[in-house]
UniProtKB/TrEMBL annotation:
EC number: 2.5.1.74
Gene name as annotated: menA
CDD domains per the UniProt record, alphabetical: PT_UbiA_UBIAD1
Pfam families registered for this protein in UniProt: UbiA (PF01040)
UniProt similarity note: Belongs to the MenA family. Type 1 subfamily.
Record's protein name: 1,4-dihydroxy-2-naphthoate octaprenyltransferase
Keyword Cell division: no
Any one of the GO CC terms: plasma membrane
Membrane-spanning segments: 33-52, 90-107, 142-160, 166-186, 218-248
Bilayer disposition of the protein: Multi-pass membrane protein
Subcellular location: Cell inner membrane; Membrane
Lineage of source species: Bacteria, Pseudomonadati, Pseudomonadota, Gammaproteobacteria, Alteromonadales
Function text: Conversion of 1,4-dihydroxy-2-naphthoate (DHNA) to demethylmenaquinone (DMK).
One of the protein's GO biological processes: vitamin K biosynthetic process
Organism listed in the record: Shewanella violacea (strain JCM 10179 / CIP 106290 / LMG 19151 / DSS12)
């Protein structure tokens, strides 16, 4: 496989695509809805996700977190497939492109979007680098929940509507939980090697048993949120019913996660990302049909 494909890690892109899809489709019925805004925000989110992946690859190599004992998918810098300088430059290019694309969104959405842009770029760099790397202090799942859940859904809806909505916040929280679950799988797999190099991820801090409980919570809570919101009148029935079909996948994932450890968690990482995309896609189809 092309090493740049390995570096970009396309199996993680549903974490960016899913919430942007839901946020934009939620605003589809508005008179001012713009497909240009929808496509631009989606592209910006994908560029930021790529930048995060490259930053993680580069900084984890530079700080010694990635070693030959690594259990996860190949990291191109640690494996010597691409030089650290090239990975760093690609990361910077991705961030610059995201900023260029996002400048149109900032022009359209004003200062709230500008603040989100600064926070998003800071989060992309601060996940693995800086004086207080989020990933090394048990905040990786929190960052995923905030940026690839709340910020992504509420922000994309705000760009279209000029305001937020209760539905957007609910869906942001639901998808944020699923994306946090992706991060938790990654960190649970790497518990042993992370602990050796002093990387205190959430999984390292709480232990494998509690990580399994937390994973169960993260993959089931989105369904409780949307079903409860339907009964409270915040969400329509069709998208809730369709998204609810993916509960079958969530149950299988939870069952497999409860008995899997180490390198065997690698397939579960991609499958959890697919759950985010399927949940988001089904909900969006339901919104489109309403």
């Amino acid at each position: 496989m092309n090493p740049w494909i390995l570096a970009i890690r396309p199996n993680t892109l549903p974490a960016a695509i899913g919430p942007l899809l839901v946020g934009n489709i939620l605003a589809l019925e508005l008179e001012q809805f713009s497909w240009l805004i929808a496509c631009t925000s989606m592209l910006c989110a994908i560029l930021l996700q790529v930048a995060v992946n490259l930053a993680n690859d580069y900084f984890d190599f530079k700080t010694g977190v990635d070693t030959e004992e690594r259990l996860g998918p190949v990291r191109v810098t640690q494996a010597g497939l691409i030089s650290p300088e090239k990975v760093r430059n690609a990361m910077v290019l991705s961030l610059v492109l995201a900023l260029i694309v996002g400048s149109y969104l900032i022009f359209h959405g004003g200062w709230p979007i500008a603040l989100l842009a600064v926070a998003a770029i800071g989060g992309a760099l601060g996940y693995s680098a800086g004086p207080y790397p989020l990933a090394s202090h048990g905040l990786g799942e929190v960052a995923a929940f905030v940026f690839f859940g709340l910020v992504a859904v509420v922000g994309s809806y705000f760009l279209q509507a000029g305001e937020t909505s209760t539905a957007a916040w609910i869906l942001g929280a639901a998808i944020g939980c699923l994306n946090a679950a992706i991060m938790l799988v990654n960190n649970t797999r790497d518990m042993t090697t992370d602990a050796k190099v002093g990387k205190q991820t959430l999984a390292v801090r709480i232990g494998e048993g509690q990580a399994r409980v937390l994973y169960q919570t993260l993959v089931y809570l989105p369904f409780a949120l949307i079903i409860g919101s339907f009964f409270l009148g915040f969400l329509p029935g069709a998208p809730v019913l369709l998204a609810g079909l993916s509960l079958v996948i969530a149950r299988k994932l939870n069952s497999d996660f409860s008995v899997t450890s180490g390198e065997a968690l690698n397939p579960l990482l991609g499958r959890t990302a697919k759950l985010t995309m399927i949940f988001s896609g089904l909900f969006s189809i339901g919104l489109f049909l309403v």
